[in-house]
Design goal:
Keywords: Hydrolase
CATH topology of the largest domain: Rossmann fold
Shape: globular
GO molecular function: hydrolase activity, acting on acid halide bonds, in C-halide compounds
Radius of gyration: 18 Å
Number of strands: 5
Pfam family, one: Hydrolase
Protein name: Haloacid dehalogenase type II
Distance between the termini: 17 Å
Order of helices and strands: EHHHHHHEHHHEHEEH
CATH architecture of the largest domain: 3-Layer(aba) Sandwich
Largest sheet: 5 strands, parallel
Organism: Roseicella aerolata
C-alpha cells in the first residue's frame, strides 16, 4: 500500500506554494511608491523586504514573548517597519492607503496551473490551506482567485504558527482525521520536515521563482518526500486525480 492510499485530505502551504506573493505585493506597492515619488525603490525589492520581516514577527508569537497575533496585524506592523526602513513616514500615506496596501496579501494571484490542479485533486481528496495566514485573509484570497478549498483553516484556528507541531496536529484534529491521513503539500522543505515529524504525509512541489529569478533556496527536495511534483497538475496526475 502506498502512503497516499491512507491519505484523506491534502493541506497546502499557501504563500509561495499556491500563490505568487512576490509579484502580487510588487503590483500593489508600485503605484503607492510612485505616488510618493519613490521610483528609486524597486517594487519587487520592497516586497522582498516586507516578506523578510514575516518569520521574525511570527517568532515573537512562537516563542511566547507575544500572545498569538493574527497575520493581518503582523503584516501591518511589518509594513510600517519596511516603510520606515526606506525613510518613509507611514503617516504620510494615511490610514486608508496603508490598510489597502496591507490587504494586498488578500489579493495574491495563484500560480498559473494552481486552480486547475487543485480542482483535479479535489475529486479525490478534501482540500484546505494549512497556512500562517488568518481566516479572513485566506477567505478573501480564495474568493478572488477561485481557489476550490473544502474548508478554510487559518492559523488562528490552530492558534499556532508553522513549524510549531500544533499547527499540523490541530489541523488533523479539526478535520477529524489522524495525522497519517493528512498530507502537507508545500514548496518549502522546512515546512515538510516539520509536517513529517508530526506524522503527516508530504508532497514537495517546485516553485523555483517564488523569490524571483535568482532564487537560491528550495530549488530541489532535500529529503525523500512521499511525492515530488513539478506543479499541481503533475501532482494530480501522480495521485490518480
Amino acid at each position: 500500500m502506498t502512503r497516499f492510499e491512507s491519505v484523506k485530505a491534502l493541506v497546502f502551504d499557501v504563500f509561495g506554494t499556491v500563490v505568487d506573493w512576490r509579484e502580487g505585493i510588487a503590483r500593489d506597492a508600485a503605484p503607492v511608491l510612485a505616488r510618493l515619488g519613490r521610483r528609486d525603490i524597486d517594487p519587487r525589492a520592497f516586497a522582498d523586504a516586507w516578506r523578510k520581516r514575516y518569520q521574525p514577527a511570527m517568532e515573537e508569537c512562537r516563542s511566547g514573548r507575544r500572545p498569538f497575533t493574527r497575520l493581518d496585524v503582523l503584516h501591518r506592523e511589518n509594513l510600517d517597519g519596511v516603510l520606515q526602513d526606506h525613510g518613509i513616514d507611514p503617516a504620510t500615506l494615511g490610514e486608508a492607503v496603508l490598510e489597502d496596501l496591507n490587504r494586498a496579501w488578500h489579493r495574491l494571484d495563484p500560480w498559473p496551473e494552481a486552480v486547475a490542479g487543485l480542482t483535479r485533486l479535489r475529486r479525490k481528496f478534501t482540500l484546505a490551506p494549512l497556512s500562517n495566514g488568518n481566516v479572513a485573509l485566506l477567505t478573501n484570497m480564495a474568493k478572488r482567485a477561485g481557489l476550490p478549498w473544502d474548508a478554510i483553516l487559518g492559523a488562528e484556528v490552530a492558534q499556532a504558527y508553522k513549524p510549531q507541531p500544533e499547527a499540523y496536529l490541530r489541523t488533523a484534529e479539526i478535520l477529524g482525521i489522524r495525522p497519517a491521513e493528512l498530507c502537507l503539500v508545500a514548496a518549502h522543505n522546512g515546512d515538510l520536515k516539520a509536517a513529517r515529524a508530526c506524522g503527516l504525509a508530504t508532497a514537495f512541489v517546485h516553485r523555483p521563482t517564488e523569490h524571483g529569478p535568482d532564487q537560491s533556496t528550495d530549488l530541489a527536495p532535500s529529503e525523500a518526500w512521499d511525492a515530488v511534483a513539478k506543479d499541481f497538475q503533475d501532482l494530480a496526475h501522480q495521485l490518480g486525480c
